[in-house]
Amino acid sequence: MAVAPAPLPAAVAGWWERVNGSPAWQDGIFGALAVLYGIIAATSFIQVARIQRRVPEYGWTTQKVFQLLNFVVNGARCSIFACRRLVQQVNPPIFQHVILDLPGLAFFSTYAVLALFWAEILYQARGLMTDRLRSGFYAINGVVYALQGFLWLCLWWNPHHSMLVISKLFIAGLSFFTALGFLLYGGRLFLMLKYFPLDSKGRQKKLREVGKVGSICFCCFLARCIMMCFNAFNKEADLDVLDHPVLNFFYYLLVEILPSSLVLYILRRIPAKLQISQYHPLSSG
User: Fold this and answer.
1) Which of 16, 57, 110, 136 could lock 69 by a disulfide, CB 3.0 to 4.6 Å apart?
2) Most confident of 10-19, 32-41, 98-107, 112-121
3) pTM (2 decimals)?
């Protein structure tokens, strides 16, 4: 007859509840999140400054816009977690949802810029016009923000739990389609680069970059979709309350902090400084 496993000590069994209910742990965990987001924001700002100093004549390239949006998103998250107790006291409660959800939408727009860049490379390689891609990007972002604004208004008008579930499922669906976008355009660009001639300049470096970044972004948004669905249907896993700091820490670490850090590290290279060749006039003789 098998021996039943010994029960866990009460100190270990109640660890989760003690940590979640402790104001000191709450402040410490949310403070740690604020520091991590602040480091990423500072890194992105430094990259924007480096690119501007290195090649100011390029203007607002995709790389610079991507780094700037990362700075905005992570800076907003840093401020929210640093002032989490003040955010939790904002009235009416609908403004709490706006403050907490808006950086998530901006996170979507940030990485949609990267997917747009890859799609433009595919279209240019096939000799197709990219104007429709950029117009579609703006249109999709406009529709997404308009729908989210409509859901906020509905939640304000009827603050029922079902409306909160719909709002979270909207973010989950958005994350799912973003993951599909990276799978589609990242996969197609990876295959295109793979069949380039082996001696093509920069082929191997770009192949590794697209493969790594695409895999990270796909897994990030897919995990975000799954966890938001879990958050929508499980009241015990609510990320919008103060007394779930451990859950908040692992959620934001897995779906924003770690992926952003890896992507920024992979895309850390900045354009080479333009070399202006010397002009040698021909002699009249």
Assistant:
1) 110
2) 32-41
3) 0.86
